[in-house]
Amino acid sequence: MATKTYRARIVQISPRLGAALERTHYLFAEALNQMVRRYIDMRKGKYGQECKKLADIMLTRSNTFAHGVMDQLTREISTSGLTDEWVDLARAVHKSHGPLFLQHDGFAEVDGVMLHTKRHGKVSPMPGRLPVNAKFWHQVCDSASAFLKSNNELLENWRQGRKEWLQEKADWESANADFMRFWNGSYQEFEETCEIKRKESQALEGQKVVEKKRHRRDRGKRMSRWHLWYNWVITHPEIIEWRNRAKAAEFRPVPPTVHKKIKNKYPRQDKHITKFLDWLKENNPELKALDSRRRFYVRNYLRFRRPPTLTLPSANKHPYWFTFELNQFYKNVDFDKGSIQLLLVDETEEGSWFFRWFDAKIQCDPRLRPCVRAGVFATKGRYPPYIGGKVGNKLNRPAERPENRKAGYAGAKLVLNKRRKELFFTVIEQDCPRKVSWKKTKQRTCRGDNVFAKDGSQIPLKVMAIDLGIRHIGAYVIAEACRNRGVWDISWQHKGITGRHAVPGLKEIRQHDRQLRKARSQRGKPVQGEESFIELQDHRTNMADDRFKKAANTIVELARQYDVHLILFERLGNLSPTAFDERWMNRQLRDMNRRQIVDTVKLQAREFGIECLEDISPWMTSHICSRCFKPGWRFSIKRKNPYGERFTRKNCRDYGYPVWDTGGHLFRCPHCEYKCNADINAACNVAAKFFGLWSGLDGLKRDQWVYTWQENQPKTFDAKKTFLEWALDVRNRKLMGDSPF
Ligand SMILES: [Zn+2]
Q1: Pick the CATH number of 461-632+669-697 from 3.30.460.10, 3.90.960.10, 3.30.420.10, 3.50.50.60
Q2: In principle, which of 261, 266, 585, 687 could form an S-S bond with 272, CB 3.0–4.6 Å?
Q3: Does the global pTM surpass 0.90?
């Protein structure tokens, strides 16, 4: 099942419709806000212990469950015949406290209007009251619990992080026992002295002497009492004995000459005291060590970490969008013609609110339109056509056959902003049947042995192996393999490199990163809570997203075009970065590129029944020849330099000469003369590994390669020497054929 969101813009909005849209959103957001607060009150125990317990249960279960409980709690008589722990609780709450509030009396008040559910059928509009249908009420309850649950999750993450942090702190404290002795001993004395000094000066000024209520959390974060600290240090030289590396007698106070000099230069106390301290630190290494330890401790372990705050939903600042449910809040939608009916809150001339059906015009994404969907499905199989009615669980399972796929649409989220009013339709599409299944087999030699067709037979397996690259999206190879007497026969059907001009390269993204870093460093110290270079940052983020999506799309399209069963990726491992990408490619960016593309491909391929494997070992894939499975070489072509080579420009136009480069983009096998792009070779090897063709190579070490140039090894074929001679020949124009290779 693939869930997608397509948008449709509401157009030709009359003032009345516009006002009704705004009003509906406002009403929902306000009601939600009040309901969230009610849930919080319940959890805090405002309505009694049982209610608190109930709220805790509600927030651990599904949203539908939560609104079911809320529904029970707010009726006149509890009606449920179910037997469950929560039902007893709800009944107990109902018995002891009566209903929490009566939903048909009012569950929220917005601008003096009471929102309530309808008890008996139709209600005519009344000033000060707005009857809503059950779905609206349910949605308010649902969304409130969803809102709180997501916040709880955030808080849980924070708690987890804090737990680790506390553990780290305890570890550090036990590892630095000598420092902690100082911190809890002498440093406490200093704190007390400060406290006495403070009280003395308060008394001296004739102020009321106040006790400090508690320690400041950031105690010692900034030494705002430098002069006290300085005085204390020079009267307590024994603190440099903190780890028994120096004697108190070795303490060097600021000599009078320096003292005078600094004081003349900086007459203000807040300036010269810090200079004295600097001097002390320079000349007393133990004091310096102590101070750096103190700074580290304060910075890393005393700073208070704030939990995430709960921001209540509101109509304007933190909107939570209302979802129109099919047949409840919207109906008769025609995506081809662009018409829809919406149930919105209207206002009578007297100013009382009521729900009414509005006709609206929409301009929708072509992918929503049945004619486009059916057309594309017939030719490309991309968007399955709709079935009528409610979707339910009908589309959860894959279709029987690809041509039977169906789709359905469900809720539409109303999103308003200054410029446009839009509906975001949720479209649910059925998956294609899965192409292969995995089964255990005896005498397994490789992972390919575990793949079977749906009926259990071994099929000629078609795979696409990809080696993701930097300059382009990646090199791919389509391989078809048949199993003959326990060995897979591979035939390479297609090899190539994918990449479109429309896909932004990693290089461009990297460039923006560099720009950002440079600009930020020029701007100076960052201000906390303030963003800088928002536009460039956004541009960079969008560009990266664009790349990942387009790349994943291209790969999936390719897989569908060749009708493959499996897509193979290399595992993201500790690939040693080559000199080439180490130089100008941020490793982190490359890893992110890979992770994002693989995740997106996985998600998209499932829809077409294509399986995705991402854990093929990348070991040596780019160094072994994919034809004869012997070690080969990577190199690149250096462009000829007409000046350096004393050739005419015309003679230098055609070729360069090869240069050894472990990250070179070309590959040559000295054993079978196979030449190709290094990335394509790597992709071939990924497929070969999957089919177990590498079994003879296990445990191969670099220094056991046949063509090693170590003296004590028997030389069968010295590839490096051969190649260098060959390269030299090319360079000396002795062997200039049609092509250098
Ligand atoms: Zn070879």
Answers
A1: 3.30.420.10
A2: 266
A3: no
